[in-house]
């Protein structure tokens, strides 16, 4: 993915205990003048990091709109510690909650989730609502969201060779269009994914939702985004289908749509 020079300093927190302890890298932008505007929280995708084009654009928007922005890397990603093969949705959700608790205590939030980050965002809202803090989420912007991708998009399409590799080695690999290194999917990720499914009933976010989805997305078909909408009957949901958009949605015109969607959820003053 194309990157832009990151302007904020990298800081770290420790998450987990004993052998599961890992060092999570964050970049936190603080508005020069305190305001009531929600903080923007970037939740990246599978194997993406916080220096990607969209993540940096979110921080630039926060700077322009005089609000806070939090970017971070899941364990096994970017500048964070931990092994990628140990990653699961539960593990990365735990880290997301820890970062929010550390960086934005009590502050209202606009969650911006890309691909797998959309799944993490939905689970994060569920956890906040479970603990009586659902009102903290002021808005949700999902870019090519991939909730339940392990159960809905990977498991049904496993080849015999991939299934055998899972059974015998505990993981399988597939070529990546975005990296010379292959994607790795572990048995632990897939099994944990079943426990974190969100497309199994009504999802209530309690906030406005804007979904941006490319219709030429080879990784997450736009029908998956339509399925997500069916599970959000109580929310104010807007979907923008981008006819020639791919999965990354990182072109200049795609970034403009993302920033507009986020900006519409920020108070003007």
TrEMBL record:
Keywords: Hydrolase, Transit peptide. This is Palmitoyl-protein thioesterase ABHD10, mitochondrial. It catalyses: S-hexadecanoyl-L-cysteinyl-[protein] + H2O = L-cysteinyl-[protein] + hexadecanoate + H(+); mycophenolic acid O-acyl-beta-D-glucuronide + H2O = mycophenolate + D-glucuronate + H(+). Acts as an acyl-protein thioesterase that hydrolyzes fatty acids from acylated residues in proteins. Regulates the mitochondrial S-depalmitoylation of the nucleophilic active site residue of peroxiredoxin-5/PRDX5, a key antioxidant protein, therefore modulating mitochondrial antioxidant ability. Also catalyzes the deglucuronidation of mycophenolic acid acyl-glucuronide, an active metabolite of the immunosuppressant drug mycophenolate. It is an enzyme of class 3 (hydrolase). Residues 58-249 form the AB hydrolase-1 domain. Its EC number is 3.1.1.93, 3.1.2.22. One of its GO terms (molecular function) is mycophenolic acid acyl-glucuronide esterase activity. Gene3D superfamilies: alpha/beta hydrolase (3.40.50.1820). It comes from the Bacteria.
């Amino acid at each position: 993915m194309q990157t832009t020079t990151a302007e904020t300093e990298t800081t770290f927190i420790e998450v987990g205990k004993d052998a599961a302890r890992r060092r999570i890298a964050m970049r936190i932008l603080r508005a020069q003048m305190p305001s009531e505007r929600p903080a923007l929280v970037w939740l990246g995708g599978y194997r993406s990091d916080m220096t990607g084009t969209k993540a940096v654009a979110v921080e630039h928007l926060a700077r322009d709109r005089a609000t806070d922005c939090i970017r971070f890397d899941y364990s096994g990603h970017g500048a964070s510690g931990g092994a990628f093969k140990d990653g699961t949705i539960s593990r990365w959700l735990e880290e997301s909650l820890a970062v929010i608790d550390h960086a934005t205590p009590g502050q209202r939030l606009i969650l911006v989730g890309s691909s797998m980050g959309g799944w993490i965002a939905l689970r994060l809202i569920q956890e906040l609502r479970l603990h009586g803090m659902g009102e903290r989420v002021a808005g949700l912007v999902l870019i090519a969201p991939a909730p339940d991708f392990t159960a809905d998009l990977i498991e049904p399409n496993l080849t015999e060779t991939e299934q055998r590799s899972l059974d015998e080695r505990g993981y399988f690999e597939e070529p990546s269009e975005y990296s010379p290194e292959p994607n790795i999917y572990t048995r632990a990720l897939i099994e944990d994914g079943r426990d974190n499914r969100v497309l199994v009933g009504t999802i209530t976010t309690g906030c406005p939702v804007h979904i941006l989805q490319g219709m030429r997305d080879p990784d997450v078909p736009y029908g998956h985004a339509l399925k997500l909408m069916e599970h959000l009957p109580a929310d104010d949901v807007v979907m923008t289908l981008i006819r020639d958009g791919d999965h990354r949605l990182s072109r200049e015109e795609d970034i403009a749509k993302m920033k507009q969607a986020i900006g519409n959820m920020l108070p003007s003053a």
